[in-house]
Design goal:
By secondary structure, the chain is an alpha/beta fold. The protein has a single domain, classed as Rossmann fold (3-Layer(aba) Sandwich). It contains seven helices and nine strands; from the N terminus they run βββαβαβααβαβαββα. Helix 4 runs parallel beside helix 5 and helix 5 packs antiparallel against helix 7. The longest helix is centred in the middle third of the chain and has 18 residues. The radius of gyration is 16 Å and the shape is globular. It starts with 5 loop residues before the first strand and ends with a helix.
Length: 204
Amino acid sequence: MSARREIALGFTDAPATEGLHICYVYGDEDERQDVISRFLASGLRANEKVLCLADAPGRSAMLDRLAGLGVSDEALTLADAAAGYCPSGKFTPSVTLDMVRDFYENAVGKEGYVGARGTGQMNWAVDPALADPADLIRYEAQVNNVLARHPYTACCQYDARLLGGQMLMDVLSIHPMMIIRGQIVRNPFYVEPETFLREFETRR
């Protein structure tokens, strides 16, 4: 595997390397829009293929933010979060993991982009009609293994107001990096995927 690129995340001046798995637990919509629009814009400026899976109320506002940042959205795929994660109407971890692999491989291997990044709002995941919470946690843990081979830079957005205490701790445990007050930091709660999944299945 070739060396990973150093990239800009947009919302911070801290150095970063492509292929990060970032957790963004937020409680303020204006802050979320600002952080995520800058994350997307920095990828677009760098000639990356960019994916944004967002809830309907925020999609037009995100396009307005990107326009205000002076970037073209030609390399941006903007789609509904629930439909993107649950194309069959129910979340299936293997399908979404394949989507991440394919998005990166198509962007870099076929379409000529230098890299790929994406972000998704995870509000759909608290709807029992769409997702089993255990499947979501298993998926998030396995994303780390996918990104080890396909350096897609991923930012998962969780609304703190929708999460219970245990789910919040599980979400934090499976993301190596996190955003706090607009800065990227190493997550002190992170547990390696295999270790986490053994403990998680035992607990269940």
